[in-house]
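Run: sequence + flavin mononucleotide -> complex structure.
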Amino acid sequence: MSVIPSLETPLGPFMLKNPFLLSSGPPTASSEQIGRAFRSGWAGAVIKTIRPDGMVIEDLSPRFAALKDRNGAMYGFENIELLSKRSVSYWTTEIAEIKRNFPEHLLVGSIMAAPDPDEWRDLAGEVASAGVDALEMNVSCPHGMPEQGAGAAIGQNPQMVRDLARAVCGSVDIPVIVKLTPNVTDIVPVAKAAQAGGADMISAINTIQCLSGIDIDSFEPLPTVAGYSTYGGYSGPATKPVGLRIVSQIASSVDLPVIGIGGVADFEDAVEYILAGASAVQVCTAVMWHGAGIVREMESGLREYLARKEMSSPGSLRGLALGKLKAHQELDRTRRVQPSLVSPSACTSCGRCVVACRDGGYHALSLHRGRLVIDASRCDGCSLCAHVCPEGAITMEQKAL
Ligand SMILES: Cc1cc2nc3c(=O)[nH]c(=O)nc-3n(C[C@H](O)[C@H](O)[C@H](O)COP(=O)(O)O)c2cc1C
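>> structure
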């Protein structure tokens, strides 16, 4: 059977041309950026969070810190940036213009106000009547705003999430997305509170509260603002495991479309989120690093993947991994895996697996005349050796007990 896949993706009442959306952040800080991104292929965008004009935004400089591997590739990113510096009237004018130029694209207005239902209602009404297709309630920013009782301070309190979602949902007639924070012990009561308040969709995750580093010469925490710093929000590839966990928990506990966010940089990341129950994904950090053009590879990669899997659309993947997540005690203990040197020519006898197994495992590996020897009687099947092998020469093979 040969399938010609379509990337069309239903998201609540909307039909997106693909599952890729820009999330609220620097890439959606102006109408010009949003327009350029739409022309590159993004199906939609969530505007940088709009706040009431009375909520003063004074950004710090610098406000970013990056964690990179030895090759200079970024794997984690911290920001202490605040909300949109542009006024409500800038956005209401630009929203109408963006919708005139891109009527087929999903335009979402992200909003945040003080924990006062009237403030949320007023802002929601203004932004909705400018013509956005949906609103996203930012109750999840972990820095700067919680100190004022807003952002994650709301998202960490299920009752406030429910009450403010109820206020917003009752005041507009477009779908409302509630964007949740990962900085809670249990996401499920918060997701259920959003649903109880009338949310039409949930997006997650916003950034993870962090301290990304400390300069060991100056003793200054990063990013350093005139010698001092504050806790910030962590994003980028390193956060995907947290995002996937939270999205799968939300998708398993509420009956609402979920938008997956956190570390998406390519189509494979997006597929993982969809398998974990997301209907679509949002991207911020990868666009800041590589530009909005990454969506072209994401689209072609997803199309080829779906064809290879003989699947007709991204929707056919949704939630397929959820049934494979079980409680720890329920997993199969009747099997073990054991290392096997499947490609002996790839082994360079570097000894990393031997050292790892000796000092961090079960002392089951040794090198004899440059050849790896596996002592099956000592091996506990933990798989550390395969993970540390820089050549990928070791694979783990199933053994029944
Ligand atoms: C510099 C920066 C600014 C951000 N500003 C906002 C914002 O104004 N509103 C919001 O809801 N999320 C904001 N975010 C969070 C992102 O929308 C997203 O939830 C988070 O970065 C995780 O996705 P990523 O790993 O693709 O970046 C911001 C993120 C970054 C890195």
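>> summary
The first helix runs from residue 31 to 40. The CA atoms of residues 66 and 379 lie 38 Å apart.
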